[in-house]
């Protein structure tokens, strides 16, 4: 059956309002997938390692002298691109199989000049953190990425890096491809991060590693704090103080970082997909073991509980200084819309696409204010989700920094639509989750981007009972 036959008579979603051309896949062969209504989802979902911690493990490992060993590294395209980049800077990065990796680093300030362009693929985290890590070493590096990454703003990182003495030349609007010339005599920096972004904060801290004296980063809203925790773990002197001005992070430059043995926790942002799917598919009962519940990442789970989700944390414990639990999600027939507090946005910024799907199956309105950052992710996520949800029969209102989904309740989401993933893994996965409980199947035009963060998504969801199938383009 073709995409526009039978249940697919609804209009296909067109390109975003703010784009001049139809969205293109950077993959030679797009992988369209169809997700159809399924029976209960049941069993255990062992999701992959945390993407944020995986990038940081490789980068910090490359900035030590000696061998860092990593267990449970996310082997998604984004992280593999960072591994390649670290090799290009002179680190020895070895894949021992089964999620075991090692990095023999070159020390702070020890990066060699790569002899080729650094291609970070789809990864904003990869490129922005690597820019920071090389910015205070006198080498020249050219960065590029896929069509999504080359459309994203880099000025938010190159502006503070310029304060260290780093020079950057890129395309109009601070876009990749872009060449950075690292500072030969870096000076320490005091920087108030103007947007809630862990990538920007982290880029400045990584640059501060090779500057003498103290680099101070102040964030008004707390964002994920993996860089701070891991820098302390690698032996850097770093303090965090909550003040009237915000969260003040002070790093003493030019430390000798000590190699570590790292066990990467499983990614709460990936756990979000089987959890949300279980809440909306009747009869489901899914356990998602060993999920890191760092408070700077766990906002979605609080939000779901406030919406009436049957979601519990079992076996709550502490591992490597971080709270960890097994998440148990069961079908939740009485979900209701809520207002998600704006000050929670940073702790669930990657989870709004799948939350908007859950909101469609709830009764009443879910308001999501304070989410301007969603417009500059792998895609404009408000626009991508709003267009797909509307085409699938759900009312969505939006403004520059807010959006609102009016739920139609369980069993009433029409679906029957083809949506565009726009090179965005989380858009693809969110709509495949919608198809599991909609009245008619949902087709995602290209699910290939899912490999950036959750390469086992399709078999994992199908093992639980989902009906996701690859179809011909
Ligand atoms: C990340 C920070 C967030 C998040 C991204 C991962 C990180 O981006 O969306 O998926 O690992 O630092 P921003 O810094 O742009 O908010």
From TrEMBL:
<keyword id="KW-0808">Transferase</keyword>
<dbReference type="GO" id="GO:0009073">
    <property type="term" value="P:aromatic amino acid family biosynthetic process"/>
</dbReference>
<dbReference type="InterPro" id="IPR036968">
    <property type="entry name" value="Enolpyruvate_Tfrase_sf"/>
</dbReference>
<comment type="subunit">
    <text>Monomer.</text>
</comment>
<dbReference type="InterPro" id="IPR006264">
    <property type="entry name" value="EPSP_synthase"/>
</dbReference>
<feature type="binding site">
    <location>
        <position position="56"/>
    </location>
    <ligand>
        <name>3-phosphoshikimate</name>
    </ligand>
</feature>
<feature type="active site" description="Proton acceptor">
    <location>
        <position position="350"/>
    </location>
</feature>
<dbReference type="GO" id="GO:0008652">
    <property type="term" value="P:amino acid biosynthetic process"/>
</dbReference>
<feature type="binding site">
    <location>
        <position position="51"/>
    </location>
    <ligand>
        <name>phosphoenolpyruvate</name>
    </ligand>
</feature>
<feature type="binding site">
    <location>
        <position position="426"/>
    </location>
    <ligand>
        <name>phosphoenolpyruvate</name>
    </ligand>
</feature>
<dbReference type="GO" id="GO:0003866">
    <property type="term" value="F:3-phosphoshikimate 1-carboxyvinyltransferase activity"/>
</dbReference>
<feature type="binding site">
    <location>
        <position position="52"/>
    </location>
    <ligand>
        <name>3-phosphoshikimate</name>
    </ligand>
</feature>
<comment type="function">
    <text>Catalyzes the transfer of the enolpyruvyl moiety of phosphoenolpyruvate (PEP) to the 5-hydroxyl of shikimate-3-phosphate (S3P) to produce enolpyruvyl shikimate-3-phosphate and inorganic phosphate.</text>
</comment>
<dbReference type="InterPro" id="IPR001986">
    <property type="entry name" value="Enolpyruvate_Tfrase_dom"/>
</dbReference>
<feature type="domain" description="Enolpyruvate transferase">
    <location>
        <begin position="39"/>
        <end position="459"/>
    </location>
</feature>
<comment type="similarity">
    <text>Belongs to the EPSP synthase family.</text>
</comment>
<keyword id="KW-0057">Aromatic amino acid biosynthesis</keyword>
<feature type="region of interest" description="Disordered">
    <location>
        <begin position="1"/>
        <end position="29"/>
    </location>
</feature>
<dbReference type="InterPro" id="IPR023193">
    <property type="entry name" value="EPSP_synthase_CS"/>
</dbReference>
<dbReference type="GO" id="GO:0009423">
    <property type="term" value="P:chorismate biosynthetic process"/>
</dbReference>
<feature type="binding site">
    <location>
        <position position="199"/>
    </location>
    <ligand>
        <name>phosphoenolpyruvate</name>
    </ligand>
</feature>
<feature type="binding site">
    <location>
        <position position="197"/>
    </location>
    <ligand>
        <name>3-phosphoshikimate</name>
    </ligand>
</feature>
<keyword id="KW-0963">Cytoplasm</keyword>
<feature type="binding site">
    <location>
        <position position="381"/>
    </location>
    <ligand>
        <name>phosphoenolpyruvate</name>
    </ligand>
</feature>
<dbReference type="InterPro" id="IPR013792">
    <property type="entry name" value="RNA3'P_cycl/enolpyr_Trfase_a/b"/>
</dbReference>
<protein>
    <recommendedName>
        <fullName>3-phosphoshikimate 1-carboxyvinyltransferase</fullName>
        <ecNumber>2.5.1.19</ecNumber>
    </recommendedName>
</protein>
<feature type="binding site">
    <location>
        <position position="152"/>
    </location>
    <ligand>
        <name>phosphoenolpyruvate</name>
    </ligand>
</feature>
<dbReference type="Pfam" id="PF00275">
    <property type="entry name" value="EPSP_synthase"/>
</dbReference>
<comment type="pathway">
    <text>Metabolic intermediate biosynthesis; chorismate biosynthesis; chorismate from D-erythrose 4-phosphate and phosphoenolpyruvate: step 6/7.</text>
</comment>
<feature type="binding site">
    <location>
        <position position="377"/>
    </location>
    <ligand>
        <name>3-phosphoshikimate</name>
    </ligand>
</feature>
<feature type="binding site">
    <location>
        <position position="199"/>
    </location>
    <ligand>
        <name>3-phosphoshikimate</name>
    </ligand>
</feature>
<feature type="binding site">
    <location>
        <position position="124"/>
    </location>
    <ligand>
        <name>phosphoenolpyruvate</name>
    </ligand>
</feature>
<dbReference type="GO" id="GO:0005737">
    <property type="term" value="C:cytoplasm"/>
</dbReference>
<feature type="binding site">
    <location>
        <position position="51"/>
    </location>
    <ligand>
        <name>3-phosphoshikimate</name>
    </ligand>
</feature>
<feature type="binding site">
    <location>
        <position position="350"/>
    </location>
    <ligand>
        <name>3-phosphoshikimate</name>
    </ligand>
</feature>
<keyword id="KW-0028">Amino-acid biosynthesis</keyword>
């Amino acid at each position: 059956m073709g995409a526009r036959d039978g249940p697919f008579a609804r209009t296909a979603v067109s390109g975003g309002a703010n784009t001049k051309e139809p969205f293109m896949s950077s993959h030679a062969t797009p992988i369209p997938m169809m997700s159809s209504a399924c029976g209960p989802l049941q069993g255990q979902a062992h999701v992959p390692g945390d993407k944020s911690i995986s990038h940081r493990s490789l980068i910090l490992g490359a900035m030590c002298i000696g061998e860092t060993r990593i267990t449970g590294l996310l082997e998604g395209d984004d992280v593999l691109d960072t591994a390649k980049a670290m090799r290009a800077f002179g680190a020895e990065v070895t894949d021992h199989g089964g999620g075991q990796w090692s990095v023999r680093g070159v020390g702070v300030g020890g990066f060699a000049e790569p002899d080729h362009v650094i291609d970070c693929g789809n990864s904003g985290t990869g490129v922005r953190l690597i820019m920071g890590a090389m910015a205070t070493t006198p080498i020249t590096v050219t960065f590029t990425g896929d069509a999504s990454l080359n459309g994203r703003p880099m000025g938010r990182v190159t502006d503070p890096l310029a304060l260290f003495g780093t020079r950057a030349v890129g395309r109009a609007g601070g876009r990749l491809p872009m060449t950075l010339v690292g500072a030969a005599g870096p000076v320490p920096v005091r920087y108030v991060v103007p947007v809630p972004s862990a990538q920007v904060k982290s880029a400045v801290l990584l640059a501060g590693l090779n500057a003498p004296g103290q680099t101070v980063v102040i964030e008004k809203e707390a964002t994920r704090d993996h860089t701070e925790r891991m820098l302390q773990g690698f032996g850097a002197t770093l303090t965090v103080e909550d003040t009237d001005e915000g969260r003040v992070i002070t790093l003493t430059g030019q430390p000798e970082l000590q190699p570590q043995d790292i066990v990467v926790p499983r990614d709460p942002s990936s756990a979000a997909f089987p959890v949300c799917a279980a809440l909306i598919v009747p009869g489901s009962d899914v356990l998602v073991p060993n999920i890191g519940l760092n408070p700077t990442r766990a906002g979605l789970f609080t939000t779901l509980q406030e919406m009436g989700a049957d979601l519990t944390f079992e076996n709550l414990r502490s591992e490597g200084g971080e709270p960890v639990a097994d998440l148990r999600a069961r079908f939740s027939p009485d979900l209701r819309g809520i207002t998600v507090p704006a000050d929670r946005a940073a702790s669930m910024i990657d989870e709004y696409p799948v939350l908007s799907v859950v909101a469609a199956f709830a009764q009443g309105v879910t308001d999501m204010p304070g989410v301007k950052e969603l417009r500059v992710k792998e895609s404009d996520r408000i626009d991508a989700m709003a267009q797909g949800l509307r085409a699938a029969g759900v009312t969505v209102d939006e403004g520059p920094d807010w959006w609102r989904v009016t739920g139609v309740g369980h069993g009433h989401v029409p679906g029957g639509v083809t949506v565009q993933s726009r090179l965005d893994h989380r858009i693809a996965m969110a709509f495949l989750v919608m198809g599991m409980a909609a009245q008619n199947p949902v087709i995602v035009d290209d699910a290939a981007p899912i490999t950036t963060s959750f390469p086992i998504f399709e078999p994992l969801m199908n093992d639980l009972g989902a009906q996701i199938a690859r179809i011909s383009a």
